[in-house]
Amino acid sequence: MSHAAALCARFWPLHGPMNGLLQQLVLPLALRPLMLPLAPGRLAPPLALARVVLSLALAPIALLSAPSLAQVQPLVEVTVTPETVRLGEALELQVTVLVPTWFARPPEYPDFELANTITQRPPDSSFPTSRRVDGENWSGIVRSFRIYPLQAANYRIDAAQLGVTYANPGGTPVSLQVPIPAVRFQATVPAGAETLTPYLAGSALRLSLAVEGNTGSLQVGEAVTLEYRAEVDGMPAIFIPPLAPALTFDSASVYARRPTTADGPPAVRSEKLTLVFAGGGDFSVPPITLRYWNTQSATVESVTAEGVTLRVEGPAASLNSATKRRSAPAWPLLAGLAFSVVIALALLRLAWRYWRRSAQPRLRAARERHLRSEAYAFKALQQSLQAGDRSMAYRALLTWTEHLTPAMTSREFAQRYGGAELADSIDALAGGLFGASEHAAAAPQLAQHLQVARVHYLREQRSPAKNALPELNP
């Protein structure tokens, strides 16, 4: 750098894309008269006077160069690794944003929430970076997102925007909404695993059934707890299906606790059943089996937790003696009953033929419409919340938002119809599920907020259009 350029960089530091041109070409030419040797016997101008003259001479140039920084568009790059994953595996979405100066505020990222996916931020998901752009050093931030597809399909994210605010030396910070390049990825089911319902994959699966309580000498009135536990390596816990079977006993009551899940590694799902015995006898608990895709051997394997038999000492529960007694019917009554049966069968045959030809197709179509409706999806969401299963509730929430008109995410629905409390409850549900929050969402409170917000949504859907024509005869 010349003496003139060095003096310029000392007394007139500039920032932005124009600083190289100004400091290397324009400013040294303006400083050249001040750098010429003086005649013998004359004193050099004071340094302060040189700075004042330089400032007055270069003020128009600085003013012309300032607006150019506000017109510089930040750079946003997106990478997806890998672009094709097997169902249940995670892909990494990495977003890099670069600005010509430095960030005045953290970038505002979209949530990248898609239907039938789980989006997480892994630990240490953000880190700074820098890059030379057109000879200038730009500052940047890299943020990573981890996405788990829940269904085999092609996924796309379009029209997403990133809020960026960067410093503008000598002026106010520049705030822009920068479009994010389109994101594409695909989830597939491995060949040979198409028959798995539900789909479960991992490098290892462990399944167990433990009995808590004094099983050596059970008496009538005592209780035991059955714990079903599944651990899978390489998959989120939301993929593990329900474990406990539906147990029914004549002499015992069964009480189910709320399932618990945790993302590992390994991912864990635990379910507990409490059996309270009202009578003696043998109580058989059947084994349970799960089939999964072993990602290491590339085969479908089965894992079984063996059942148990519990012996309870004491008398068996007595049956109502009235149910054991059967009186012998009289012959006239039997004849009348047989005639009634013949008439009933004839009527049933006629009704069946009518059903096959007319009523059945209409009822089937009506049922299919009901199963695809927003009301049915919302009912399933409320049932999941009442059951206290956060994994099923989160999947039901994503399914329900697909039926909203116009299409919107759960966060957009909360902001539009529910307010801050509903948005916080939804964030707490997702945070408690993926371990991002210490406080899990209260299911009854979330169900109540969703019910109130849905009333506002339905009212808006049923309200007449604002631009409807007035009545002809008011």
* Mass-distribution shape: globular
- Biggest sheet statistics: 5 strands, antiparallel
Give the C-level CATH assignment of the largest domain.
Mainly Beta
Q: In percent, how helical is the residue content?
A: 25-40%
Q: Counting H and I runs of at least 4 residues, what is the number of helices? A: 10
The CATH topology annotation of the largest domain reads as Immunoglobulin-like
In the predicted model, the low-confidence regions spanning at least 5 consecutive residues are: 1-44, 62-67, 320-328
Specify the structural class.
alpha+beta
- Mean pLDDT metric: 79
Number of strands: 22
Which strand-content bin applies to the residues? 25-35%
| Number of self-contained structural domains | 5
Gyration radius from CA atoms, angstroms = 36 Å
CATH architecture of the largest domain: Sandwich
Could you characterize what this model shows?
The protein is globular, with a radius of gyration of 36 Å. The chain has 10 helices and 22 strands. The strands form 6 sheets. Strands 1, 3, 5, 6 and 7 form a 5-stranded antiparallel beta sheet that branches. Strands 13, 15, 16, 17 and 18 form a 5-stranded antiparallel beta sheet that branches. The chain has a 3-stranded mixed beta sheet with strand order 2-11-8, with no helix packed on it. The N and C termini lie far apart (84 Å). With 474 residues, it is α+β, with helices and mostly antiparallel strands. Mean pLDDT is 79; it is low at 1-44, 62-67 and 320-328. It has 5 domains: 3-68, no CATH class; 75-188, Sandwich (Immunoglobulin-like), CATH 2.60.40; 201-313, Immunoglobulin-like; 338-364, no CATH class; 374-462, no CATH class.
